């Protein structure tokens, strides 16, 4: 097992205007998250957010601390959210094991010392998608299934954006300090997510796209509303959105994405909506 990580830094929107395709992809796209036998992490200075992935096979993987945290263990000052996007597995938190089926989520509170990630079958491993943010208070670990989620039905087929927003690790479902996560599933024939788009200057947001069929892609839009850019994304890739950026996408087929965010408050509706005709 190896823990592979990188650090990324904050960005000014005026600087972003001069970024070309290669620079945008380097700074905001997380191309490789899922690698068998390893934990891969990106530590962003935007809200001190960590996005990562773990694919255990025949042995369990430890969510271990990394040097930028200057911590004895990963959750010493952090909370963690994990969602399984592949084969069945389990997560053990300080000796208590939680079964993690496809689309199951778990909140792991500050102070949890040992987090072990396992797959039931090495030939059909779990793919654990990981988000983490600093925490000021200890809240209990909680396993959350899709049946526990608060579901919002949004959009319409006529506007190609009919979707269910499954709020999994969110205020009202589980207690957290600042971390929120959920999963949005598009209905057949709909390709747009988060349309109309929005910004929330009090929070950052990270999108992770999965169940993107082979040979298909998702075009993710970011940047300020009057100065937008795009990134073409493949299956099981993530994109980091600063607080000044919109976050929206259209795919060449149906797909699912996980949204994660952290920041000043836990109010899901705290957003500034931008109408499509305002975009440039």
From TrEMBL:
Q: What class of enzyme is it?
A: isomerase
Q: Which GO terms describe its biological process?
A: D-galacturonate catabolic process; D-glucuronate catabolic process; pectin catabolic process
- Record's Gene3D superfamilies? Jelly Rolls, pectin degrading enzyme 5-keto 4- deoxyuronate isomerase, domain 1
Binding locations of Zn(2+): 198, 200, 205, 247
Q: Is Zinc among the key words of this record?
A: yes
Catalysed reactions, semicolon-separated = 5-dehydro-4-deoxy-D-glucuronate = 3-deoxy-D-glycero-2,5-hexodiulosonate
**How many and how are cofactors bound here?**
Binds 1 zinc ion per subunit.
Q: Show the GO MF annotations.
A: 4-deoxy-L-threo-5-hexosulose-uronate ketol-isomerase activity; zinc ion binding
In short, the EC number is: 5.3.1.17
The keyword Transmembrane helix is assigned to this record: no
Cofactors named for this entry: Zn(2+)
- Output the superkingdom of the source species: Bacteria
NCBIfam families, A to Z: PRK00924.1
> What's this chain's function?
Catalyzes the isomerization of 5-dehydro-4-deoxy-D-glucuronate to 3-deoxy-D-glycero-2,5-hexodiulosonate.
PANTHER family given in the database record: 4-DEOXY-L-THREO-5-HEXOSULOSE-URONATE KETOL-ISOMERASE
Q: Which family does it belong to?
A: Belongs to the KduI family.
> Know the name of this protein?
4-deoxy-L-threo-5-hexosulose-uronate ketol-isomerase
Organism annotation: Draconibacterium aestuarii
* Gene name of the record: kduI
């Amino acid at each position: 097992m190896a823990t592979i990580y990188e650090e990324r830094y904050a960005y000014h929107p005026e600087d972003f205007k001069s970024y070309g395709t290669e620079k945008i992809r380097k700074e905001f796209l997380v191309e490789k998250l899922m690698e068998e036998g390893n934990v891969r992490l990106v530590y962003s200075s935007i809200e001190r957010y960590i996005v990562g992935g773990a694919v255990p096979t025949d042995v369990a993987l430890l969510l271990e601390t990394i040097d930028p945290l200057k911590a004895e263990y990963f959750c010493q000052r952090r909370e963690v959210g994990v969602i399984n996007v592949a084969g069945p597995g389990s997560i053990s938190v300080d000796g208590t094991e939680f079964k993690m089926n496809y689309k199951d989520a778990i909140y792991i509170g500050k102070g949890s010392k040992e987090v072990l990630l396992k797959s039931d079958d090495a030939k059909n491993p779990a793919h654990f998608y990981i988000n983490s943010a600093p925490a000021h208070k200890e809240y209990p670990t909680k396993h959350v299934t899709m049946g526990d989620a608060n579901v919002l039905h949004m959009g319409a087929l006529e506007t190609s954006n009919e979707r269910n927003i499954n709020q999994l690790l969110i205020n009202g479902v589980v207690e957290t300090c600042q971390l929120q996560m959920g999963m949005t599933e598009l209905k057949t024939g709909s390709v747009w997510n988060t349309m109309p788009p929005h910004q929330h200057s009090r929070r950052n947001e990270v999108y992770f796209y999965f169940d993107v069929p082979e040979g298909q892609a998702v075009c993710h839009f970011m940047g300020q509303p009057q100065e937008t850019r795009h990134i073409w994304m493949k299956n099981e890739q993530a994109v980091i959105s600063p607080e000044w950026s919109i976050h929206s996408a259209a795919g060449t087929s149906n797909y699912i994405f996980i949204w994660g965010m952290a920041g000043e408050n836990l109010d899901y509706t705290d957003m500034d909506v931008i109408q499509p005709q305002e975009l440039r």
